[in-house]
Design brief:
8-stranded mixed beta sheet; 19 strands; 12 helices; Metallo-beta-lactamase, Chain A
């Protein structure tokens, strides 16, 4: 299995053995094992390690962050020094994907589960996670919805005697040798469930990972004005890469080196939006995307961050727009070069979307 390892420039790892350990984690995860017979909802250690050594694949120290490919949804697994937590749990139909992934890693306990906000693409399979791996604490924001999906989560928590904890700003919790701090939500956002998203930063050694759910511009502005330290090495891009999130000031305050976008292939929302991708590229952020790369995994030893795949290549627009004439061109079209700077716009997305927006194709390059 060919692996790609990328660390921060100039940083030195503390042990090559971790690369071998993480390679095992990747191999097991990609296998998406079913639980072994008689496991009773947990994977046996021999199946997890693949060596019969009696040790699970995550028994060593270190932090592994798994950004699961659950289509147009979010689910992130963090395993730190053998302790696990789950942030969001995809759509309702993602239960088997999530369960098999955790079984494949030999996860037997989940210490914390976080439902960032009560939209189905974030808590859809949280009832399955709670039912199989009842966490010590389930975090939900102080907002509720009258949906079957949300009621299923509450019912699973009640059935398993899992306490529900509302986020308290500044509260810190330990996971292995790491910790996470609650940064948001900071106020009452009414009917905007996205802005109610629980925002947290996970710190392991010198490395920080920021998770913002679907928090949009208003919540981001509140975070910027809160005086909290938002800086992070890795930023899970808000709202699946929508232009409603990752506002300029917020991105500047986070100042990430890496960004991970969780979204579905050819999703109906056009995520990630071109504006977000362009902003990340201009900030020289290396980008990973689950719609193009599948599940993305990062490993951190407290000093360096390494990845199981290469970042996506530099952005190339699908089309170039003349916003004045309402025509679109191929990027290499001579006509595109003649567009006045004030009318020039790059676009990444579906051709049909441009036609629906009233743009017409260039007669020369026939895009």
């Amino acid at each position: 299995m060919e692996m790609f390892w990328r660390g921060r420039p100039g940083a030195q790892g503390r042990g090559a053995g971790w690369i071998l350990a993480l390679a095992l984690v990747f191999a097991l995860a990609l296998a998406s094992c079913q639980p072994p017979a008689g496991a009773g909802g947990t994977a046996g250690t021999e199946a997890a390690s693949g060596s019969g050594s009696g040790e699970t694949a995550f028994s060593e120290e270190g932090l592994a962050v798994h950004f699961l490919d659950v289509g147009q949804a979010d689910c992130t697994l963090l395993v730190c020094d053998g302790e696990a937590m789950v942030i969001d749990a995809g759509n309702n139909e993602d239960a088997n994907t999530i369960k098999n992934y955790l079984y494949g890693l030999g996860i037997e306990e989940v210490k914390y589960a976080v439902g960032t906000h009560p939209h189905e693409d974030h808590i859809g399979s949280m009832d399955a996670v709670v039912g199989i791996w009842p966490p010590e604490t389930l975090f939900l924001p102080q907002v509720e919805t009258d949906t079957k999906t949300f009621r299923d989560v509450l019912h699973a928590a009640e059935e398993k005697d899992v306490p529900i904890t509302r986020p308290v700003i500044g509260q810190t919790y330990q996971l292995g040798g790491g910790r996470f701090t609650i940064l948001g939500p900071l106020t009452d956002y009414g009917d905007n469930l996205n802005d109610w998203s629980i925002v947290l930063k996970f710190t392991y050694g010198d490395c920080d990972f920021l998770f913002t759910g679907d928090a949009e511009a208003d919540a981001e502005a509140d975070l910027c004005g809160s005086g909290q330290d938002l800086s992070a090495d890795v930023y899970q891009v808000g709202h699946h890469g929508s232009s409603s999130s990752t506002s300029p000031e917020f991105l500047d305050r986070v100042d990430p080196e890496y960004a991970v976008i969780s979204c579905g292939v050819d999703n109906d929302y056009g995520h990630p939006h071109w504006e977000t991708l362009e902003a990340l590229e201009e900030a020289e952020v290396e980008i990973f995307r689950t719609d193009e790369q599948g599940t993305v995994v990062a490993y951190c030893d407290g000093e360096t961050i390494q990845w199981g795949t290469a970042p996506v290549v530099s952005l190339e627009p699908d089309y170039v727009l003349n916003t004045r004439s309402r025509k679109f061109h191929r990027p290499d079209c001579a006509g595109a070069e003649d567009i006045a700077p004030g009318n020039y716009q790059e676009f990444q997305g579906d051709r049909q979307e441009l036609l629906q927006d009233g743009y017409s194709p260039c007669g020369s390059c026939n895009p």
